[in-house]
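Recap slide: Fatty acyl-CoA reductase, sequence and predicted structure.
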Amino acid sequence: MTETLPSVDWYQDQVVFLTGATGNLGGCLLYKLALKLPTKKIYVLCRGSIRQTIEKWEASMPEEAPDILDSGKIHFVIGDITLCQFGLKALDLETLQKEVSVVIHSAATIAIFQDLAVAVRNHCHPVQTLMELLETFDRLETFVYISSMSVNTFLPAGVVTEKIYPVTNDEVLAETHVASTLATGQSSYPGAFPVSYAEAKYLSERVVLESKPSFSVLIVRPSSIGPAIQDPYPFYGPHDSIPGHSFLHLLLENPNYRTYNGTKRFSQNMIMDEIPVDIAANVCLLHIASGTKGIIHAGCQLHVSLTTSELATICEQYTPKEVLKQIAKVNFDQNGALAKRVGEAFESSHRDWTFDCSRSLHLKGMEGVIGLCFPNHDGNQFLQERVRRQVRRIVRKINEQE
């Protein structure tokens, strides 16, 4: 059976409400919606002030931000996802209720080691609020929740498909777990999740689905998000928002590793699942236009799969030996404890998972403004340059400490 590929023309009459537009993936989605698609209008939720939001875009997309603002599509609404009804003014809420056809909730706190109660409050409460609020939206067709593949890190090694896996055989409603965690500060699944972020995202997914909404729901689970191949520009992505970069730095700052040989403590055949941010954004936008419902994965099956061993070999090949010698001698006091914690969490919890992306494989060869195929992209050259950029950052950090 041949599946019909979505058309960008679908966006022509769509009015989108976007949260998290200053984040890594949120910023890329904004760029696509404003400059690459015929979107009618984009309402952007701003926490704080409009000026602060614009300044963040100017920092992350300095050349593209003026064009985004000049597109005539951007409309700002002040609010806060942690507040009742997102802290929206009555007039703004009324406008959203009348006009919005697609909601993309990409706002998230990506701190993985937050206190569990704080993580649950930051992730689950906004989703609970939003699911109630969206029932009052007259034109809403689709709600998109940006989740994470980490929701399944309690599973044993093997293939992980695009569905909800219960942690226990006698699961109660997610809202019960949320209330219990907020009241006690304790997990309902002790020892199941390696980090609080994963547990909070897992509960948030279940809150969305258990609310039984009257509109279509699409849950997108990106893997670890990497820098952009092309959009908004090559290597786009704030350094602190690229987990792979943060992990590399912390790994080399951990005295138990300090060299790429240290990665031999990990399974060498384990797939380091990562996806460029613009491919993750395109997966999301293609499935919205396709009318997809349920859960989809956005992972390395749609790009390039590398094992721990392969990635370590590439990184070592493009890191000068003198830099590795420098790293071994430096005392990274500032991040020492965090580096140790990250290394221990990764070593103890990561397994040989294969995150299945079957629902998107028919889109893999699609080119164009929201395609998943980049014909002129040289993956090896891209990775080499990426390693070199991170090495330069580490060298600068070493020089600052000397």
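The two ends are 63 Å apart (CA to CA).
The first strand starts at residue 15 and ends at 19.
(End of recap.)
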